[in-house]
Amino acid sequence: MKWSFSIGKIFGIPIRIHITFLLLLLFVAFNPHGGILSGSVGVVFIVLVFAGVLLHELGHSLVARHYGEHVQDIMLLPIGGVSRTEIPEDPKQEIVMAFVGPLISLMLGALFFLISIALNYSLDFMDFVRGQGSITENLIPILFYVNIMLGLFNLAPVFPMDGGRVLRGILSLTMEPIRATRIAVGIGQFIAILMFFFGIFYDWWLALIAIFLYFGAEAEEQGTILHRLLHRVPARAVMLEHFESVSPGDSLGNLVEKLCHSSQDDFPVLDSGRLVGLLPKNVIFQALRRSPAETRVQEIMLTEFFQAGPDEMLDKIFDRLTQTQVGIVPVVDDGKVLGILTLPQIAKYQMLCGSRPQQSLTSLRIMPR
Question: In 203-269, which residue ranges form alpha helices assigned H by DSSP?
Fold first, then answer.
């Protein structure tokens, strides 16, 4: 994601922070009207809250990886965290994966509750509002309330919250996944509408959250339908079999010439027929702005990239493409590049063939004009 940077890895999972999160910390640090949670104390509070959010998202990611799903990274934003993972096809696995995040938040809340009780700190919320007690006496009980609210809120049966995924998983145990998604989305949107009207009269923030949830549920429905259309369709059925490639010794000037006379924007880099790199469109245009025409392809090509087998399913490949900045996936079998896949190619396949019977989908190959 743009405007984000890595802060390291936990259990091999990259952790990224969006730049706006740092702006949130600065706002809290220098906000004179933040009460007991302003200044350095406010910054500590935000960091502790987001540490809990990180643990919440780690729970999702580790369960997904346990089930063999790809985990790209975890992104921390001012509005919360996002674990960018593939969703298991097995409804039972999806239920476990979705539920473990809120469970971790509730466990953290219970931990801060026990600490508050052990230290004899007041759990009266109005004491915090009035600023009674020391900073520590207020901070720990507030963390109890925050984590409990995060856990319960995420369990609400509304997409894209975890509770919506749990509901969809439960329904999918007894019905087709698309129908289960539509029912879960409908329930979630009905709840979001109730939240919106309640928020208009009592809290505008709740109304704004309801709008986010309503359209988030709609996007979830569309994404699920797309995945089901691509599900069990192998890469070989969609890949471009006739494609242009470049060699490591080609110059940037030669590459521009090829771009001008080809419908391709992304290229595999082959050395004597062996795949050695990729040149996605964004890498090419960055090089055009920064490098001279004599620059060799081997100096700018990507050497670490995702590749797919000919029998790998299209929904998994689509997820990888949308999660990364790389717009091309080579389809490789026994070291030989059989074809390439791009998002426009998958979109063309969906538009032309997505509504046909499943039996005919795997026998089709979409060729470039």
Answer: 204-230, 252-260
Name the one residue in this structure whose structure tokens are 């426009």.
Answer: 344
The reported pTM is: 0.71
The residues that bridge with 339 in the sheet, in sequence order, are: 331
Distance, in Å, from the CA atom of 47 to the CA atom of 137, rounded to the nearest integer, reads 18
- Rg of the chain in Å (alpha carbons): 25
Q: Which of 147, 137, 120 is nearest to 49 (CA)?
A: 147
* Per-residue pLDDT at 32: 59
Q: How far apart are CA 146 and CA 355, in angstroms?
A: 46
Strands 71-77, 13-18: pairing kind: parallel
Cβ atoms 297, 247 nearer than 8 A = yes
CA distance from start to end of the chain:
33
CA distance 177 to 90: 10
Read off the pLDDT of residues 148-192 as tens digits, 9 standing for 90 and up.
999 998 998 888 789 999 999 999 999 888 888 889 999 989 999
**49-79: buried (b, 16+ CB within 10 Å) or exposed (e) per residue?**
bbebbbbbbbbbbbbbbebebebbbbbbbee
The residue extents of the domains of the chain are 4-155, 235-361
Residue 267, classed as helix, strand or coil, is strand
| Lookup: tokens for 230 | 């691509």
The two structure tokens encoding residue 154: 């995420």
- What's the pLDDT tens digit per position in 199-208? 888 888 888 8
Q: How far is residue 229's CA from residue 87's CA, in Å, rounded to a whole number?
A: 15
* CATH superfamily placement of domain 235-361: CBS-domain (3.10.580.10)
Is the CB of residue 319 less than 8 Å from the CB of residue 326?
A: no
Residues ≥6 apart with Cβ < 8 Å to 212: none
